[in-house]
Each structure stands twice: as C-alpha cells, then as structure tokens.
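Contributing new complexes? Match this layout with protoporphyrin IX containing FE.
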Amino acid sequence: MCSIKTISALPGHPDPVVLEPDFNRVHEIFEKLADRYGKLFTVQFANRPLVVVANANQINFILRKRPDLFGPYSRKNRVLETMKVDGIEAADDHGWKRQREVIAASMESRHMAQYFEYIKAATGDLKNHWITHGENLSKIDLEAEILGFSISVFTSMVFGDLADMPVGEQEVTKNILHNLVPILGRRIDALLPQMHLESFSEDNYFDEDIREIFRAVKNVIARKGSLLNDTNGAGNAVSMVRLLIEAMKEKGSDIRNIKLIENILLIVLASEPTTANTLLRVLFCIAKDPQVQRDIQDEVDAVLGNGGIIEDIEDIKKLKCIDAVILETMRTSSVSRLAIVEAKADLVMDDVEIPAGTPLVLLIARCALDDENFHQARVFDHRRWRSETKVESSKHNGKAFLGFGSGPRSCPGRGLAMLVIKSALAMICGNFQIRLSPEKQPGDKTGFNDKPLSFGLTIEIRDRRHDVAL
Ligand code: HEM
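Output block (do not edit by hand):
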C-alpha cells in the first residue's frame, strides 16, 4: 500500500524564487533547481508554494488531464487580459472548447494546400530578395530577415489578400498588422517580471496601439464577413480570418463568445516569433555542423534539382532529412521551455497530494534532454528520428518531446509551422549556404544558452563547386 504525502514533504528550495527580468531566461532558474532537487520539488513564489515537474510521465499526465483537472495559470491570465490577447490560451472548460473547435477548424489539413500558396509566394520573394544582394548578401541581418519572412507569411495567411480595401486603408492596415508582434511583444517581454506586481502600471502608448490594432482587425473581419455573403465569388481567397468566421457561423457562435479579435491577435503572437525562432535555431544547427547541412542539400537537390523553391505541396513529404533536423533542433533547443498550469481540484498525482489552486511549472524542454528519455540526450543527432538509421535498441521516448505540447491543448498550428519551416529550409539550403560568422565561436555542442536571438549567422549564395568541404 503506498502512502500519500503532501507537497510539503517534497524536496523544497528554501528561498523565494526571484524571476529573471529577461523573459527568455526564466526557464534556466527552474532547470538549474531541477539539477539540484530532482524531478518533483517545490519553490516559494509570490508567497505560496509552486510545484516544479520535470518527469516526462507526470508532465504528460498533467497536459493530458486538461481541461478537467488542470487549467491555465490564473496570474498569467490577468496579464493576458490587460494585453487584450486573452483568447484561447486564457480560456478554460466550455469557453476553451468552443474556441478550440473554431480555431482547429481553421487549421484543418484540408486547408493546407490553400495556405501553401501564401507560403510559396513569401518563400519565392525571400529567395529573389536575397539573390539581388549578390556579393553583399553576407552583410544582411539574417535574424531580422527571418523574422520579417515569418511576419509576412503568417500575416498573409491570417488576414489574406487586402486588395479589396480602398488603397489608403490598405496601407494603414498592412502597417498595423505587420507591427503586431513588436507591439504585443513589448508587453510579453514584460510578462513574467510583471507577475510580481499586483497591479499593472498602465502604459498609454500600448493602450493607444492596441486600440488601433483592434480597429484594424475589426475592419478586416467586417470585410471578410461581408465578402462571404458575396455570391459573385469575390473574396474567395482563403484566409484564417475567413475560415474562423465560417467555422464560427457553422457552430452558431458569435464574435464575442469566440473572442474572435483576441484570438486573431493571439494566433499572430503564437505563430510569428515561435516559427522564426525555430527556423533560426535550425539554421544555427546546420551552420555548426557541415555534415548536417550537406545531408539537407543532397536531399533538397534530389527534390528540387538545381535550386528553386518547393512548388508542389506533395514534395514536402519527401523532405525526410529536413523533418528529422527540425525535430532534433526542437528536441535539443526548443523555443517552448516551460508551461505553467494550475490544479483545479484537490488531486493525487502518483503518491503526492496536490491542493486545488497549486501552480505547477512543467519543464517541458528539459525532459527531452534527459538521458532517461533519449540515448545520449545532449548530443545532436538527427538520424535518431529516421526509421532507416534509428538504432532500435536506443532509448527514444517520443512522449518526452514536448516542443508543441501534448494532449487536448497541444499546439493546433503544428502542421502550419512545420510547412513554413520546411519550405523555407528547402529554399535556403537549395540556393544558399549558411555559416557561423567568424567571430561566433560555438560553445557547447547543443548550446543555445547564450542569447536566443543572437546566433551570429551569415548567408551566401550557394556555389555547388564549393559546397562545404567535409
Ligand atoms: C515552431 C512553431 C511553434 C511552436 C514551437 C509552438 C508551440 C506551442 C506550444 C508548446 C503550445 C502549448 C501546448 C500545450 O499547452 O500543450 C502551443 C499552443 C498554441 N499554439 Fe503553437 N507553436 C508554434 C506555432 C504555432 C502556429 C503557427 C500557430 C497558429 C497558426 C500556433 C497556435 C497556437 C495556439 C492557438 C495555441 C493554444 C492552444 C490551446 O490553448 O488550446 N502555434 N504552441
């Protein structure tokens, strides 16, 4: 018979945790504490105990038992509310289910071919833009270019063609939509430090910006909504806004109970920086390891011939090496480092009693770097994801790969994100060469523990005669 213990019997860090002002580094504090206290321990945060979980089985249990036993962290929700992006991420129970059905409908696989047209256009534009730089290409700011690409591709997928707007209005709206991430990002960066404070100090510029964003998004919704009723076929180009409106009507919901505007902003915020940052991390991995870059070049050459871009969505399925390199990059250096949830009722997990209202920090990235879950977990080896080179006896716990989360609330944009990253990588590796800039000396082999958005990468036009010498 196993005896049940309370969380006060778990190993506990004696001092209150002070969170990093840099949002990108907060996870490190908890990951370091896990090295000291193990895979289930407590820390004091904001005058109450918070449970930290690093065990893959327990994390999967928690993620899969949403929304019944665990819900979103209420303190974080207050911050999302003030930012006006309290859509699906802050929702729970029936509200979440209603929003999830509509959002998932807009991202179903049957729409991928239509979204792919936007991806293809943005990828082709990026290629041409880089080619025109010629010899000077190595001087461009690759990180800014990749973020710009991601913003452009998701803005067009979400909002569609704005050509139906009057020209003046079109330009203003485009500008606002392209600046969503920097504007909302200002607040997101401040998200965790702000959690210390009970009240938000208001920032007038932000309020003004957000009002303008709301106006622009409402305008797009009104236009797409009225075009849906146009029997002449106008407005038939697909966009996420249009598909969201269609799904909403089909389910008999309205803009307010679906929180349409908040969710549109949240989708932009959930897609543009994560996808850009993941793509940059992949580029960093292939710049560090010439053999990996060469493997991808060989695969892309076989699919594309001499350069170009992927024109046919069916060809994406042939990119097995690229798929494996993306998964391995996400395993060793995921942009999603931790998740925070809250217990909704008194419950028992394994032999530990967790009281209702307890916040739990889930170290989702650390699981994938644990030798208990993956063979030589800290070594980058994309072959572990490929059936032909996978060593069957090697440890490979797929459930410990949580870069897109798990369970009913896992990322609904996974398919779209992979489509964008694969298309961009095929174009980049087919036509260009990525290198680490000379001043960048990679430290540890897996390491991204330096600033996540400072990879020190350069790009050149690929000259096949000088493909990286191995
Ligand atoms: C590489 C890029 C991306 C990564 C790493 C990523 C990662 C994640 C993670 C870890 C979660 C939380 C999952 C969980 O709690 O189990 C999430 C949720 C979410 N993601 Fe993504 N995501 C990416 C791209 C996207 C894209 C492209 C979209 C939309 C177009 C998107 C929309 C969402 C939404 C709406 C949620 C909230 C789901 C819910 O609460 O039910 N994400 N994402």
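Reviewers usually confirm one structural detail per submission. For this one: Residues 63, 88-89, 100, 103, 267, 270-271, 274-275, 278, 335-336, 339, 403-407, 409-413, 416-417 surround protoporphyrin IX containing FE (CB under 6 Å).
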